[in-house]
UniProtKB/TrEMBL annotation:
Pfam families noted in UniProt: Cupin_2 (PF07883)
Ranges where the Cupin type-2 domain occurs: 71-134
Taxonomic source organism: Jannaschia pagri
InterPro entries tied to this protein: Cupin_2, RmlC-like_jellyroll, RmlC_Cupin_sf
Protein's name in the database: Cupin
Length: 322
């Protein structure tokens, strides 16, 4: 009987092949945010633009995306109903939160990971000296039904030609577009609604929601380090689990994926053997493994090697409470 191998190349998105969208969100024309690029890697993500390219349409219980920004470029204040997890692939980033972005902030370096609590306004900016990239994991197949913007973001966008419809779609007057007669503009949140968005201090967020790369390297020296999950250093159950692997974490035997698994190398070059197919994964690549497939990972070169592994779980992709 002829043995077939999985169509692995269709499930590997190479970092160098990522296709950006510069009109993904409402702040695409707002000065200070107009140079950012959005990438939708697995699943539909939360883009508000029909221009957004989706690399892999499958939704394995969560979405994978990325944001790329030059220095001093920022992503405007918004909120999500489900998990939003970032790890820094390249550069130095500041994450900030609160109604006006002044409740708290944290600086993340390469490899650090942040499980941002749901239900708070958050934004981020590249505070490094070069183009930076952060990789994102969004909870749920539909990523929580979209983005909730702080009122001032919607008002600033309108002043620069972008209107968000109540249907969740952007209309760009610079392209000659106008809000259709049967579509109302997205209403601004009322003061009563805004009062439901917490304003946690940094001291209440950082210890339970941020993990540092060097700490994870130490934790994963003898086996995979649980990062997000019931036993993780960031204890949460957002519909997926996150593990951190290094050269010393890997078992000698092959693993069989019981649920969808996504591999996201952080540093080093990795050899992947997947049911008879062999490929190399590099930093910034993303690989989707389906349930029932057997795979093995080994670093393919000497030197530092690290990788984030995301696994689908049966936990609901609900909110996190600070």
């Amino acid at each position: 009987m002829l043995q077939t191998t999985p169509d692995i190349d269709a499930r590997i998105v190479r970092y160098g092949a990522l296709r950006p969208c510069k009109t993904a969100f409402i702040d695409a024309h707002t000065p200070g945010s107009d140079q950012k690029e959005n990438f939708t890697i697995i699943g539909g993500g939360v883009s508000e633009s029909p221009d957004q390219h989706v690399h892999i349409a499958d939704t394995p219980g969560f979405n994978i995306g990325a944001a790329g920004q030059p220095p001093k470029c920022r992503n405007s204040l918004h909120s999500h109903r489900t998990a939003e997890v970032f790890f820094v692939l390249k550069g130095r980033w500041r994450f900030f939160w609160g109604r006006w972005g002044t409740a708290g902030s944290v600086i993340l370096e390469e490899g650090d990971i942040f499980n941002i609590p749901t239900g708070i306004f958050r934004g981020f900016e590249n505070v490094g000296t070069d183009y930076g990239m952060i990789m994102a994991i969004l909870g749920g197949d539909d990523a929580g039904g979209g983005v909730i913007w702080a009122p001032q973001v919607i008002e600033d966008a309108q002043a620069h030609g972008l209107i968000l419809g109540e249907n969740g779609r952007l209309y760009d007057s610079k392209r000659g577009e106008a809000l259709p007669d049967d579509v109302a503009p997205m209403p601004l949140l009322s003061e009563a609604e805004l009062a439901n968005f917490p304003e946690p201090r940094a001291a209440d967020v950082i210890p339970g929601y941020v993990a540092r790369y060097q700490d994870l390297m130490a934790l994963a020296a003898d086996g995979p380090a649980a990062v997000i999950g019931p036993n993780g250093c960031l204890r949460d159950r957002p519909g997926f689990e996150v593990e951190f692997l290094t050269r010393g974490s890997l078992p000698d035997t092959r693993a069989v994926a019981e649920k969808h698994v996504v591999l996201m190398p952080m540093r080093g070059h990795w050899h992947l053997s997947l049911d008879g197919a062999d490929r190399h994964l590099n930093p910034g690549d993303t690989c989707l493994i389906k349930p029932g497939e057997g795979y093995a990972l080994t670093p393919s070169m000497t030197g530092e090697a690290s990788l984030y592994r995301i696994t689908e779980t049966d936990d609901p992709a609900g909110p996190t409470v600070v």
